[in-house]
Amino acid sequence: MPKRSSSLATQLLETLEERGHRSTSPRRAVVNAIAGQNKHFTAEELHGQLPGVGRATIYRSLKLLVDSGVLCRVLLEEGDLHYQLSHRGHHHHLLCVECGSSQDLLGCDIEDLLQTVSAAHKFQLSGHWLEVYGKCHDCMDREAVAV
Amino acid sequence: MPKRSSSLATQLLETLEERGHRSTSPRRAVVNAIAGQNKHFTAEELHGQLPGVGRATIYRSLKLLVDSGVLCRVLLEEGDLHYQLSHRGHHHHLLCVECGSSQDLLGCDIEDLLQTVSAAHKFQLSGHWLEVYGKCHDCMDREAVAV
DNA sequence: GTTTATGCAAAACATTTGCATAGTC
DNA sequence: GACTATGCAAATGTTTTGCATAAAC
User: Fold this and answer.
1) Binary contact (B129, A126; C-beta < 8 A)
2) Which of A6, B60, B118, B142 is surrounded by the most beta carbons within 10 Å?
3) CATH fold of A89-147
4) pLDDT, tens digit, 9 for 90 and up, residues A79-109
């Protein structure tokens, strides 16, 4: 499993630069931290990991990344919203409730189903938000071994 | 369109009583207000509508109702969580982005689809959260007339 | 009379904003 | 040098909590 954190962080920074945002050291620290994250996180968690970076900068950077489409918010089962590095465009997440990792779900053909259901309710569909919860493969393996 | 607010409010109150919670006048005020709501709402909005009821009571009542399963939280497109009177048990919402009304969606067979997709990702499905956004029938009519 | 609920104010969080200073391009 | 970004502290907004008082059963 090669560590691709650095290149990932670089990609994030480039995304920001393409949009006219400057490459500053606090921002590099933020994208590095995000790239090193293996699960969803909150702004405060990130702030805790980066004592040298001000809160406002954390929040502002996260907003820029979300606006750029490289970071998205995920809804946990309990209703908390966390951040999560992600694919651009529309997609969903398979969120592991054990370890907090997540897999992006592309090309999910839920649209057709929703279209049908919506039509039955005379509802003009325009969008949806779906989160899927469960256990990832690694956590299932870990449990199997533990037993 | 008969007003069923009062009986609805009574039902809510009975639900709380069945669970051992007392019938008090602040609580009656809260369930009445909720029953009269025609769209999703926030705790603060409710507090604004009930000047005589303390904030803490509002928050505590909402929590009891959510725990009882008669009230649920809905996620708006922008990521805000509001409250919404609802059916018990698992269901989804068709949320109108125009007027904020919502229809409960029961018996949506999204489970099978998710099961298949999850299996393909070696993911053990345990739950999901789905919100559907669009325009309700009334709002579509209203627009048609306006044009 | 015992137990639960309320209201208030304070506390605890989470997020945003104004502004002077510092860094980038 | 012009413009953007930062850090801090203050402001804002939301939700929770402690506690003395009041109401319900």
Assistant:
1) no
2) B118
3) Dna Ligase; domain 1 (3.30.1490)
4) 999 999 988 889 999 999 999 999 999 877 8
